[in-house]
């Protein structure tokens, strides 16, 4: 018995818009920037743990911790950010979700350390906000329903 089925038309390849290309490039850039920020956070943390007198406070600040405490926070955060950057660069969904979360935490951590490293903190916060945007707007892995296809 043969089945009477008409051959189906091939599905046209999905064309990427300029916005999709920009977001995909932004995601690659976000992964690289997270890797760089993670490594620099590790260095920041080690420096703060090893030598408290390397950083000076710019004034009185409500959110003050001992510099050694900030060093440990940045060291641990930096290690986790580097691992997450690897996940983003490999294109994993867990890397993308963790990247958004860690970029938000990194923004908060750098806001709280503004008195110790004001220019670096402002730069790190700006990069983290860009990372959040890039990871949240990359729709290249989305299906018709708007949900990630993995």
From TrEMBL:
Q: Which UniProt keywords apply?
A: Membrane, Transmembrane, Transmembrane helix
Domain of life from the UniProt record: Bacteria
Q: Where are the transmembrane segments?
A: 21-50, 70-89, 96-113, 119-137
Please report the stretch or stretches of sequence annotated as the DUF7144 domain. 27-138
Give the Pfam families listed for this entry.
DUF7144
- Listed name of the protein: DUF7144 domain-containing protein
